[in-house]
Amino acid sequence: MSKFIIRRLLLMIPVILGVVLLIFIIMSFTPGDPAAIILGSNATTEDILAMREELGLNQPLLVRYFQYIKGIVTEFDFGNSYSNGTPVRNEILNRFGYTVRVALISTLISLVLGIPLGVTAAVNRGNWRDDAAMTISLLGISVPSFWLGLMMAILFALKLGWLPASGVGGIEYYILPCLSVSFGGIAQMARQTRSSMLEVIRSDYIVTARAKGASERAVTYKHALRNALIPIVTQAGGSFGLLLGGALINETIFAIPGLGSYMVTAIKGRDYPAVQGAVVLVAIAFGLVMLAVDILYAFIDPRIRAQYKKGG
Amino acid sequence: MKTKIMKTLALLLVAALMLSLVACGGDTAKETEAPAANSNNSENAVSAPAADGSRRIVIQTLSDPGTFTAFEATSSVSTAIEGAFYEHLFAQYTAGELTPVVASGYERVADGVYEITVCDGVHDSKGNPITVDDIVWAYQTVIERGKRSTVYGNVKSVEKIDDHSLRITLGEEFVGEFAGIVTSLAVISRASFEESETGFASDPVGTGPYKVKSWTQGSSLVLEKNENYWNKETMADLQPYDEIEYRFISEPTQVALALETGAVDLALGVSPQDASKFTEDKGFHTVTIVDNLCRGLLFNCHESNPFSNVKLRQAVCYAIDAEAVITAATDGVGKPCKALVAANDQSAYSDYNMEWNDQSYYDYNPEKAKELLAEAGYPNGLKVRIMTKDNPEYRTTCEIMQAYLAEVGVEVEIMAYENALYQTYRYDPSAFDICVMQIGGSQSVLQPWKWYVQPDPARDNLNVCMFYDEEFWNIYGEAAHESTHSPETVETAWQWMKENVPMYGYGYTNKYFIYNDNVTDPFVGPMGYHFPWMDGHAN
Question: Above 0.90 for ipTM, yes or no?
Answer without folding.
Answer: no
